[in-house]
Design brief:
Oligomer: heterodimer
Structural class of chain A: alpha/beta
CATH architecture of chain B: Orthogonal Bundle
CATH superfamily of the largest domain in chain A: P-loop containing nucleotide triphosphate hydrolases
Low-confidence stretches of chain A: 1-14
Number of strands of chain A: 22
Helix content of chain B: over 70%
Radius of gyration of chain B: 21 Å
Number of helices of chain A: 19
Strand order of the largest sheet of chain B: 1-2
Strand content of chain B: under 5%
Number of domains of chain B: 1
Mean pLDDT of chain B: 87
Strand order of the largest sheet of chain A: 6-9-10-3-11-12
CATH class of the largest domain in chain A: Alpha Beta
Shape of chain A: globular
Largest sheet of chain A: 6 strands, mixed
Low-confidence stretches of chain B: 1-10
CATH class of chain B: Mainly Alpha
Chain lengths: 514, 341
């Protein structure tokens, strides 16, 4: 199916202007350049994959094309003419439909009310409820989604909500379809259905912008791939040239050996033992693993594979249905975070804004927060502010916080330095086991290198480290042992030289047919 | 502070300077200056030392309640039942005091002590129920405190039948309501002590730090090992304690127990906090600014009285000022964002 389109790769687009052309598009947020002069074109009838790390600017780029945000500088040409996309409404009027990862659905409303939200059909002065109902049924039938138009969105599963979101994009005549990791929560059958819809759209000369991390999907439906890094354009390749190694190199901008330090592992006594762990929500099913002092154990898998939940259940955040967690020789199943911290178990959450940091408060307060009850930070009644100041500054200096001002509110630091504040929290007390949950999400390569060195130092100082990550190179090059998870179950354990791209990947995704 | 070095380049016009001041201090200093100038022009008596002491004394009751309210706001909630706490404290305290005094007219100190303890107990028990509801049962602070406001007010009216409670020992009012030392009224001493205590709690204890952390980001706080429930509970209890002390002081001033004092307290205390820069989303707020916010409201009321503005209209002015303060804070947030670039 992709053959006929692939031939066009070599040709310079023909005489007609491309469907969409982005010219030196930039987007600045306070303190951050999210997108820096990116130039890109989208042809009619192609699937153009955007590839890059988290924070590379993919989401910002599609937000600009979908009219959800306005560019700081640069131009968008649609069918050869410059356009201003001031709102999602403007973009929709041009036939640009987007399916974001964060859903734009109102949970209290029904499927059909959501489908027509902002574009309600009228019957005289009133809502044309009957027409909308009929239209909604027609759209859902055409797409082959098994949804009732009158169902309330709140009661739908995530996959079903995803379908509503997709149906919303297909509501009107499309010229450009934007999909941001649309298969993340779909089953295989639903994914097949979506792919055939994409094929249909392509046949009708719709241009598709598709964001995915899954290489199998790129091969399956992609025509061209554009790689972004740190908000900048890196390269555009035809799907035939996109080998995994090449993509990773383009994505990170470094040869792998420059990024990852060499680490001397000295595995000693077992610190954490998980046996037959199943969480109350079923996000983790019968998982068993061990972590020893002096080693870095990887826990790999896609977003939603349950790997974070394993760590969170051990830390006492996620309720446990069955199984045992043994930490430092004691049964700690279901203990609260407070207790786990006191025992020397430190969990660094993946989402620093949501769970990690108190953004409006200063770095000093954040760093000291988990350890405020320790003698270094407070006495029986009062805080020891001077000692606190000294300790936090020392920790911040160790992590090379920029600027080195611990009184500054955390949300006024750059993303990379916010991440350093988060790591600094772990240094405020004695810790036997560090659990890093996606420690390098949304940070630049420089900070990434610093974080890896930080992890290495902790490991070589004898701490046990569990690295939860969906970043493949991180698992490959930092860990001496790795577990791979898929949909809540532990697929395999790999040790030492066995941790290879192929072996990890074969368990990462559903097994590829070929 | 770190950015001071970067401000050399652009021309330092008065406007830019004012803007910077606005971003750093918020809207309150500007409002205060405007209010003082306006009222000084409207009334000759406004800027006399006697009147200013009067303003300070009148503001003490609101100041105490506002500091309690600030605790609830900092943890990301609020307390609509502070007015009820005043009323219940006043009625229960006065009843206990009057009963004891009637039974044993010689034991004035005992009567006062018993009355104070009973009043404190009554007010704080509302805070305890609020705290249990919010922290343990996860009832939204809005519903919980609104419900308790109704419960408390109902009990206070039921106990008194709506009639003021008389018969407290005169020494109580003479000491805590009208007493002076070195020319300064007694309520001011109590309030200053509470301000100092509140400053220490918020800035120098773990509890204070945890209040800010919980309001700033509950999840991060709980992942940092903080007992979120306990500290949420404590915030509401402390809030009620502040309101209760205010209720006792006001009872001493009025020399009667009244079920309908404090009706305006929920609005005025939240207004004082918001005007003083406490975030309604939680996690941000300073004691000093809240005290200034409360004094500002006292100042406005006093000024309007001197200028003979009708009391019904005064309510309108307070409401408008509250909204102006919130709008100004939004503008300030935008300035902060633009100064970041």
């Amino acid at each position: 199916m992709t053959g006929s389109v692939a031939e066009r790769d070599g040709a310079p687009g023909g005489g007609a202007p491309p469907l969409l052309r982005l010219e030196k598009l930039s987007k600045h947020f306070p303190g951050v350049v999210a997108l820096d002069e990116v130039t890109l074109d989208l042809r009619a009838g192609e699937v153009h994959v955007l590839f890059g790390e988290n924070g590379a600017g993919k989401s910002t780029l599609i937000a600009l094309v979908a009219g959800a945000q306005r560019p700081t500088a640069g131009r968008i040409h649609f069918r050869g003419a410059a356009v201003e996309l001031g709102s999602v409404h403007d973009a929709r009027a041009l036939g640009i439909g987007a399916v974001f990862q964060e859903f734009s659905l109102v949970p209290q409303m029904t499927v059909e009310e959501n489908l027509f939200l902002g574009a309600e059909q009228m019957d005289g002065p009133f809502l044309g409820k009957r027409q909308m109902h009929a239209r909604a049924r027609e759209i859902l039938d055409r797409l082959g989604f098994p949804l009732k138009p009158t169902q309330r969105v709140a009661y739908l599963s995530r996959a079903e909500q995803q379908m509503v979101e997709i149906a919303k994009a297909f509501r009107s005549q499309l010229s450009i379809l934007i999909l941001d990791e649309p298969t993340a929560s779909l089953t295989e059958r639903e994914t097949e259905r979506l792919f055939s819809l994409i094929a249909q759209a392509k046949a009708q000369d719709v241009g598709v912008i598709y964001i995915t991390h899954r290489l199998s999907e790129i091969r399956r439906i992609g025509d061209r791939i554009t790689v972004l890094r740190d908000g900048r354009y890196v390269a555009t390749l035809g799907v035939a040239d996109a080998t995994e190694g090449r993509l990773v190199e383009l994505m990170t901008g470094r040869v792998i050996s420059q990024i990852f330090p060499t680490i001397a592992y000295r595995p000693a006594e077992t610190v954490l033992t998980v046996a037959g762990l199943t969480t109350a929500t079923g996000s983790v099913k019968n998982v068993s693993l061990t972590v020893r002092a002096g080693e870095i154990v990887g826990l790999a898998g896609l977003v939603g594979s349950g790997k974070s939940e394993v760590a969170r259940a051990c830390f006492g955040v996620e309720p446990v249905r069955s199984g045992r967690v043994t930490f430092a020789g004691a049964d700690t199943t279901g203990r609260a975070p407070r207790d786990m911290l006191a025992r020397g178990f430190f969990y660094l959450p993946a989402d620093r804004r949501e769970e990690g940091l108190v953004m409006l408060r200063g770095a000093r307060e954040n760093i000291a927060l988990p350890s405020l009850a320790l003698p270094a930070f407070s006495g029986r009644l009062f805080l020891r502010r001077r000692s606190e100041q000294g300790h936090t500054v020392e920790i911040a200096r160790r992590l090379n916080l920029q600027p080195l001002n611990v009184e500054r509110a955390v949300d006024q630091f750059s993303g990379g330095n916010q991440q350093k504040v988060l790591l600094a929290k772990a240094l405020s007390r004695e810790v036997k086991l560090f659990v890093f949950d996606e420690p390098t999400v949304g940070v630049d390569v420089g900070t990434r290198v610093a974080i890896y060195e930080f992890i290495r130092d902790l490991c070589q100082a004898g701490a046990a480290i569990l690295l939860v990550s969906s970043d493949l190179p991180e698992i490959l090059h930092l860990t001496n042992r790795a577990y791979v998870m898929y949909r809540g179950t532990l697929r395999t354990e790999l040790v030492g030289d066995d941790i290879t791209q192929d072996k990890v990947l074969s368990h990462f995704f559903e097994r590829q047919a070929a | 502070m770190a950015k001071d070095g970067s401000k050399a380049a652009p021309a330092r016009t008065a406007k830019a300077w004012l803007q910077r001041l606005f971003v750093r201090l918020g809207v309150l200093p500007f409002l205060l200056v405007v209010a003082v100038v306006v009222f000084a022009l409207l009334s000759d008596n406004f800027l006399t030392s006697r009147n200013l002491v009067n303003v300070a004394r009148q503001s003490t009751y609101l100041t105490m309640v506002a500091m309690g309210q600030m605790l609830a706001l900092i943890t990301g909630g609020f307390d609509l039942s502070v007015g009820t706490m005043l009323a219940l404290t006043s009625v229960v305290g006065a009843t206990a005091m009057a009963t004891t005094y009637a039974a044993a007219p010689d034991a004035v100190a005992l009567a006062v002590a018993l009355g104070v303890v009973a009043g404190l107990g009554a007010g704080v028990s509302i805070g305890v129920v609020n705290g249990v509801g919010v922290a343990v049962f996860n009832v939204s602070p809005f519903m919980m405190t609104l419900g308790m406001a109704s419960v408390g007010f109902g009990i206070a009216l039921y106990m008194t039948g709506g009639v003021p409670v008389y018969g407290m020992p005169p020494a109580f009012g003479a000491t805590f309501g009208f007493g002076q030392w070195l020319g300064i009224p007694a309520p001011i001493y109590v309030t200053v002590a509470l301000i100092a205590a509140m400053y220490v709690v918020l800035n120098w204890t773990r509890m204070g730090r945890y209040f800010y952390a919980i309001g700033g980001n509950v999840k991060a706080a709980s992942l940092s090992g903080i007992n979120v429930r306990l500290y949420l509970f404590l915030a509401y209890v402390l809030c009620s304690a502040m309101a209760t002390v205010s209720g006792l002081m006001l009872t001493a001033r009025l020399e009667t127990g009244e079920a309908n004092i404090g009706a305006a307290m929920p609005l005025e205390s939240i207004a004082a906090c918001v005007i003083g820069g406490v975030s309604l989303r939680g996690g941000v707020g300073r004691v000093g600014s809240v005290v200034l916010g409360a004094i500002f409201i006292g100042l406005i009321q006093n000024g309007m009285n001197l200028a003979r503005i009708e009391s019904y209209l005064q309510t309108v002015v307070i409401g408008v000022l509250l909204i102006v303060a919130v709008v100004a804070d939004q503008v300030r947030q935008r300035f902060i964002a633009s100064l970041q670039d």
